[in-house]
Specification:
This protein is mostly helical and 375 residues long. The protein has a single domain, classed as Amino acid/polyamine transporter I (Up-down Bundle). The protein is built from 16 helices and no strands. It is globular, with a radius of gyration of 21 Å. It starts with 8 loop residues before the first helix and ends with a helix. The mean pLDDT is 81.
Length: 375
C-alpha cells in the first residue's frame, strides 16, 4: 500500500480533535445537554441513548469528512445542494445558517451562565468576553481556527473523562439509588424516551456541522485519514459523554435547579477542581462557538479577507450577544436542540436515500454506456 493511501494518524488525531472541540459546546460542557438527552432516562436509558447516538454520529461524520475530501473547495460548503439539487439544497443551506447562528446564542448564554454560577459575575459579562474572543479568532480565518480547535479538542476530552471518573468514584455508592432519586428531580426532557433522544442528539449536531466539517477535512491527506478521524472523534466524544453522565448519576442530589450542572458536580469534589472545570467549560464553549460563527459568516460574506466579511462578522457577534442575554441556557437548549433534532433526522434520512438513488442511477448510466460500446 502506498503511503498516500494509508491512514495518517497524526493528521487524523488533529482532525478528530478539531471535530470534538467543535461539538463540545456550552450545552455539553455545562452539563445541561447531557442531563436532558441522557441522565434523565436513568442508567439503562443513558447507555442505550449513547449507543444509538454513537452509531448515527459516526455515520454522518464519515460522510461529511469524506465529502469534504472528495469535493473541490468551491463545493465544500454546498453539501445540501450536491445531495438535493439547487432549490431544495439552497433552502436547507439557509436553514442551517439560521440554525447555527441560533446555536451561537446558546454558546454565549452558556459562557454567561458559567461565569455567573462560579464567579458570581453578571451573565452579560461572560457573554461579552466570549463574544470578543470569538471575534478575534474567527477573523483569523479557517486554517488558524482548525489549528486552535485541534489543540483544544484532545485536552477537553482527557480533562472531561478524568473529572467525570473522579466524581463517579467519589460517590459511586449512589448509583444504586438512581431510579428512586430521578423521579424527584426537576429536569427537562429532550424527548419522550431514550431511543428517540439517542436519535435526536446527533441529528441536531448534523445540521450545525454540515457547513464546517467538509472544509476541515479538506486538509487531510486522503479519505482513509478522514474516516479514521471521524470514528476516533466520535468514540472519544461518547466516552467523555458517558464519564460525565455517570458522574451525574452518582451526584444527583446536588444537581437539581442548577443552570450549569457540571460546576455543581465539580464543587462537590473540590473548589480548585471546580475552578479548573469552569475554565474547561469556557474553553469548550469557545471551541464550539467559533466554528458556529465562522459557518454563518462564511455563508453570508464569502471572502474571509474582505472588509465586508470582517464588519459583517463583528455585527453578527454583537447581535448574538444581545439576543443571548434575554434567554436562559436550559430553555434555549431544550427548544432549539430538541426541535431541530427532528429536522436533522429527516434531512439525514433523505440524504442517504438521495445517495442511494444517485448511485443506482450512475450505475445504470454506466451499464448503458458499456453496452453501447460493445455493440
Amino acid at each position: 500500500m502506498k503511503d498516500n493511501e494509508k491512514v495518517n494518524w497524526r493528521a487524523a488525531i488533529r482532525l478528530s480533535g478539531a471535530f470534538v472541540a467543535t461539538i463540545i459546546g456550552s450545552g455539553f460542557a455545562s452539563g445541561q445537554e447531557l442531563v436532558q438527552f441522557f441522565t434523565v432516562y436513568g442508567i439503562a436509558g443513558a447507555l442505550g441513548a449513547a449507543a444509538v447516538s454513537f452509531a448515527i454520529y459516526a455515520v454522518f461524520a464519515v460522510e461529511l469528512f469524506n465529502f469534504g475530501k472528495t469535493m473541490p473547495a468551491e463545493k465544500q460548503t454546498a453539501f445540501f445542494t450536491v445531495y438535493f439539487g439547487e432549490k431544495v439544497g439552497a433552502v436547507l443551506d439557509w436553514f442551517c445558517v439560521i440554525y447555527i447562528y441560533g446555536v451561537f446564542f446558546i454558546m454565549l448564554a452558556g459562557a454567561g451562565a458559567t461565569l455567573n454560577q462560579y464567579f458570581g459575575v453578571p451573565n452579560a459579562v461572560g457573554s461579552i468576553l466570549m463574544a470578543v474572543l470569538c471575534a478575534i479568532t474567527v477573523l483569523l480565518g479557517l486554517k488558524k481556527l482548525v489549528d486552535v480547535m485541534g489543540t483544544i479538542g484532545p485536552l477537553l476530552i482527557i480533562s472531561t473523562i478524568v473529572i467525570g471518573i473522579y466524581a463517579l468514584t467519589k460517590n459511586a455508592g449512589n448509583l444504586d439509588t438512581v431510579d428512586e432519586t430521578l423521579p424527584t428531580m426537576n429536569f427537562m426532557k429532550a424527548a419522550p424516551n431514550w431511543f428517540i433522544s439517542g436519535i435526536l442528539y446527533p441529528c441536531f449536531s448534523f445540521l450545525t456541522l454540515t457547513p464546517v466539517l467538509p472544509s476541515m477535512a479538506s486538509q487531510a491527506p486522503n479519505k482513509k485519514t478522514t474516516t479514521a478521524a471521524a470514528i476516533t472523534g466520535c468514540l472519544g466524544f461518547h466516552l467523555a459523554l458517558l464519564a460525565l453522565v455517570f458522574a451525574m448519576f452518582a451526584n444527583l442530589s446536588v444537581l437539581n435547579g442548577k443552570m450549569v450542572p457540571n460546576i455543581a458536580l465539580a464543587t462537590v469534589m473540590n473548589s480548585k477542581v471546580a475552578l479548573v472545570f469552569s475554565v474547561m467549560i469556557l474553553l469548550a464553549i469557545f471551541s464550539s462557538a467559533c466554528p458556529m460563527m465562522w459557518g454563518t459568516a462564511s455563508k453570508l460574506f464569502k471572502d474571509e479577507k474582505s472588509m465586508k466579511y470582517k464588519l459583517g462578522t463583528v455585527g453578527l457577534i454583537i447581535g448574538g450577544m444581545v439576543v443571548s442575554y434575554f434567554f436562559p441556557l436550559d430553555v434555549l437548549i431544550n427548544f432549539i436542540y430538541g426541535l431541530t433534532g427532528y429536522a436533522g433526522a429527516a434531512v439525514m434520512a433523505a440524504m442517504f436515500i438521495s445517495k442511494f438513488v444517485r448511485k443506482k442511477r450512475n450505475a445504470a448510466i454506466s451499464e448503458k454506456k458499456t453496452a453501447g460500446t460493445q455493440e
